[in-house]
Amino acid sequence: MISSVLIANRGEIACRVIRTAKRLGIRTVAVHSEADRDALFVRMADEAHPIGPPEPRDSYLRIDRIVEAARLSSVEAIHPGYGFLSERAEFAEACAENGIVFVGPPASAIRAMGLKDAAKALVAAAGVPVVPGYHGSRQEAEFLRQKAYEIGYPVLIKAVAGGGGKGMRRVDKAIDFEAALGSAQREAASAFGDSRVLVEKYVLSPRHIEMQIFGDSHGEVVHLFERDCSLQRRHQKVIEEAPAPGMSAEMRDAMGRAAVEAGRSVGYVGAGTVEFIADAREGLRPDRFFFMEMNTRLQVEHPVTEAITGFDLVELQFRVASGEPLPFGQADVAAHGHAVEARLYAEDPEREFLPSTAKLWALRLPEGDDVRVDTGVVEGDTVTPFYDPMIAKVIARGPDREAALDRLAAALRDTVVAGPKTNAAFLRELCLAPDFRAGRFDTGFIDQNLKALSTAPRGTTERAVTLGAMKLLDAEGRAPPPHGWPASPWDATDAFQIVGSREQILPILVDGTRSDVGLSWPDGKLEIAYESARARFSDRAELGRDAVFAPGPDGFFVLEAGRQTLVAPFDPFAIDLEHLDAGDSIAAPMHGKLVAVFVAPGDRVEKGQRLAIVEAMKMEHGLVAPRDGEVAEILAEAGAQVAEGARLITLAPVGE
Ligand code: ADP
């Protein structure tokens, strides 16, 4: 068995690999970017080496620096995790050249599966069903359109070098083909440096079902059952489970054999995943699934397989990489119960799932016998724009699917995150969605049900504001505890009784916007009014009953039903009064990079005009003028990293 390993990754997967390594007595070495200097995985490792600036291309994608760190720390092996360099054949080769064990398949297998067209041809030759389509090398629009016609609409155009759903377009009619082809090719060229595409049949009622396989260096390849990853948004997995609902033993057998065959065809060693798309129009059928691609690494969703099989996949990876044979054969693999994983993200479902990078002012992740949480952050850490904004994976299991989904829903309800917005409430709604629970779903489920899943912007929760205001008063000692809050501040100083419902106005900031709440003491109990909400408080215990509070910047986050509202005291001197009107300033919507500024001080702009672009998580967000006016100041330069909420451009006040 290897005795030391460097983890060429970060975040939750680095922590997860380190955990198993420690249990096995393997010395662990972390490599980290400047942004991750104090990260949990760095603290967990026995040793850590800085490898460069935050941007992945300068750190986590630098093969030379990582191999150098491995040599300096004289480790025997490198575990690549997922993402980053995990599927780069050159990385596996660089390890081999330096006498380091790569915890993964041989470079040749990575290469064989790296391009979708070649992988398809290879597995088709091994007798594995592939989606009907054109996987050849010709790329002329006219030729591909003819192929699409022969395949029959709807078709899917896919980048040959694709990944992460990029360069993928569904086309329903011949007339739309050319435009879709052009945009898929452009996206593929910019994302992968390779514009080539393939065209295949768009499978109707598609279910994404993948098989976990494992090979050893003695020629054995087995499968560890399937995972269903059909709940997706923009072709990205959101919830994964094992086993797949509605999967018969016969189909599992057929898919398992196909997956093992695909692995054998490339001499696979280690953990791999063979992804299939199933046509579920008439339920799952053994003759209606097709190979999509193979991922030659550990998968994000591997914990659901661990939960039902009882294996530690990272331990198996270490054993196989050490040259040991798999400690079991296909007949020994059994599944028990059901497991579901949800990916908890720092993103805002009410703003089209925009990444919501910010400091984690509060982070309380669920625990319990049948709940597993894999995370790489702790309270006080910051979710930065440099990496995937996943906060944690929450995995629940139970004797059956219903029990597992119930436990996951409960775990998500008990999850407390303040600072970044999260998809916790959205995930919980998914767990509870009747059609999903009944097994009536395909990969279109989330898109078709977006409205019902409460992703529409809902504005401020009025009740949360009243609770937040109460909490502020309590914290400042303005509401007189501990005997409850029966009296008004006036009562406390003199015996003068105010007749009628006279209100005191308390100025506050609600999510950064100036607001007022009204305080009054009808029948001696404090009442706080905000918009149409009125809340009465007679004792402190009431406060904690409906909401969770977390201290935030200046004030408190009120967390209620998966939403957060930040309520802070309004301090007129702390605020730049000149720019109080949001209409005068344009702020960064999230942490990111200011990639372009299109205006200069003195320019006249029109409402809605694009003024600048901020890039975060590889997505561009245009910043537009909130009104007609003149640019007063530009407060950041193109190329600069900007913090969420930072003012970037101001307009001259009206009338100047
Ligand atoms: P990527 O490598 O970009 O992630 P995949 O080939 O793995 O792309 O496909 C991603 C998702 O796109 C699948 O999970 C599935 O939801 C959908 N998809 C892919 N191929 C098809 C197809 N032929 N028909 C219908 N949906 C498909």
Please provide a written account of the structure.
This protein has 656 residues and is α+β, with helices and mostly antiparallel strands. The chain folds into six domains: 4-103, Rossmann fold; 132-201, ATP-grasp fold, A domain (Dna Ligase, domain 1, 2-Layer Sandwich); 205-336, ATP-grasp fold, B domain (D-amino Acid Aminotransferase, Chain A, domain 1); 337-458, ATP-grasp fold, B domain (D-amino Acid Aminotransferase, Chain A, domain 1), CATH 3.30.470.20; 462-569, Glycoprotein, Type 4 Pilin, CATH 3.30.700; 577-652, Beta Barrel (OB fold (Dihydrolipoamide Acetyltransferase, E2P)), CATH 2.40.50. The protein contains 18 helices and 36 strands. The strands form eight sheets. The protein has an eight-stranded antiparallel β-sheet with strand order 14-13-10-11-12-15-20-19. A seven-stranded antiparallel β-sheet has the order 25-24-23-22-28-27-26. A five-stranded parallel β-sheet has the order 3-2-1-4-5. Helix 12 (401-413) packs antiparallel against helix 13 (424-432). It is globular and about 80 Å long. Bound molecules: adenosine-5'-diphosphate. Residues 131, 156, 162-165, 168, 200-203, 206, 208, 232, 235, 275, 277, 292-293, 443 line the site of adenosine-5'-diphosphate.
